[in-house]
Structures are given as structure tokens and as C-alpha cells.
Amino acid sequence: METLERNEKTIKVAVAGAKGRMGQEVVKMLIQDPTLEFVVAVDSKLHGVDVGEAIGGRTLGVQFVQSVEEAFQKYQPDVLVDFTTPQTVFQHMELSLQYKVRPVIGTTGLSTEQMEDLTRRYTEAKLGGIIAPNFAIGAILCMKFAAMAAKYMPHVEIIELHHDRKLDAPSGTALKTAELIAKSRAELAQGHPQEEESIPGARGAEYHGFRIHSVRLPGMVAHQEVLFGATGQTLSIRHDSINRESFMPGVNMAIKAAMNMDTLVYGLENLLD
Questions:
Q1: 166 is catalytic
Q2: Residues 12, 92, 162, 176: which is the catalytic one?
Q3: Is 212 helix (H, G, I), strand (E, B) or coil?
Q4: C-alpha 63 chain-centroid distance
Q5: Which of 28, 144, 155, 166 is catalytic?
Q6: Residues 123, 15 share a domain
Q7: Residue 256 and residue 56: Cα distance in Å, rounded?
Q8: What is the pLDDT of residues 198-238, one digit of tens each?
Q9: Residues placed in the known binding site
Q10: In what order do the strands lie in the sheet with 11-16?
Q11: Domain assignment of residue 165, yes or no
Q12: How many domains would you assign to the chain?
């Protein structure tokens, strides 16, 4: 079977979560870009198995190892791409600090305290890294446009829709969008001051006076609509990821950008002009 050729002048990339749906797309993207070298994947249940064979493709000559630390010790990657879980990603980022590996993180759910701690430590170490709630360029533009609109139309609600296997709610994308909106408008308590929920949670989660609604259904990938209302008019800004391939240009951009950064950034919008 065909084996992936190696190039010594590339960015060496390790992937945590390569067997997952997002991870498999990352693998496909890496092997199609001659400037990136996919060197190792992490999965304790697939230790020693060729990654290509595990995901149903051709032999790649790249194996799974048992842990991120083993991957760092044996393969010295430049970048770790991590699409695992909030429970493991914080530990992986601490190891990245220890081994001077630049993280590109697509896992959401880290607490505010964890984010602040990691940002401080990465800045002190002058080590670049990126945590992005969403890697789809269209989703980043949706966030930016929503923040622009909120300055002029402050009455807003966010509806985010994802597949029913997503663990966190609201999504990291919705939270990031909400943060950007909150910075653009004066805080405003929306809705009728005497409104009551006959079913708790019917109005969604409250964030700085506006609401975020989470939908979880099979068949969906990642979708978000930001609705604005004003006298006599409404505005809707919507983004839809039809498949997970939509995230890969952003992941590719983040890997390359991380090599030239000396701090940890939150949000792919920081890489756009």
C-alpha cells in the first residue's frame, strides 16, 4: 500500500482526536498540504495502529500513540491540533507549554478561569497558540457582522443549532458572538419587564440582557442565526456549516499562524484583517 512521503522542511503536526469526525477531516487536510507534515496521532485505544488504516483510508505511515506526552517526547511536533474534550484539553495545553509545542485547539468548554490562566502562562513563555470556538471563515464573519450590527440595533437574540452529540451548550461560537456583541452595545435588558416563563428556560439563557438559545438535533452540523429587531424592521445574520470540511481552511490558517505568534489568542477572528 502507498505510504505518505516525508518532507524535512515542513511544519510537524500532531493530532489529538484524529479518530473523531473533526479529527478525520484534519488528517485529510494535513496530507493534502505539502507544507505540513502529519507526524503522529493520539488515541490510547489505537496505540500502534496506522492512522490511515484506522479511519478507512490508505496507509499513511503515521501511527497512533497512547498519550499527548508520548507524542511530544517521541516526535517533537511543532503544533498540536486538538479536537478532544474540555476534560482533557486543559491538560494537553499544559503539556504543550512544558514541551514548547504550539496548540491549535478546536475544543470548547474551557472555563473563564482556565482561559485566563493559560493566556497568562503562554504569554510569559512567549509561546504561540490558538483556541477557536469555530474555524469556519463564514462563521467568523458572522460574528464580526453581528458585533457591527449590535452597535446600531441593540435588541438581539442568538439561536445556535448543532448535532445532538455536542456536549456543551451554548456553543463556543455563540458565546464568542455574545461577547463581541456585548462589547459593541450598551447593556440593555430586553423583553417585557414583567415577562414570566410558564416553562423554565423557555426564553433561553440570559447574557448581558439578551438571550441565547441552543438547539440539538441529529442531522445538523453547526449553524447560527443572530436576530436583530428595531422599530419596523428586523435583521438576520446566519451562517451554516454543511459539513466538517468547512472548518479545514481555518485550521490550516491557524497552524501556520501559530508558528509566528508569541502568545495565546482566543478566536480565529484575530487572524483576519
A1: yes
A2: 162
A3: strand
A4: 24
A5: 166
A6: yes
A7: 27
A8: 999 999 999 999 999 999 999 999 999 999 999 999 999 99
A9: 17-22, 53, 58, 106-108, 132-135, 163, 172-173
A10: 64-65, 36-42, 11-16, 79-82, 102-105, 129-131, 264-266
A11: yes
A12: 2
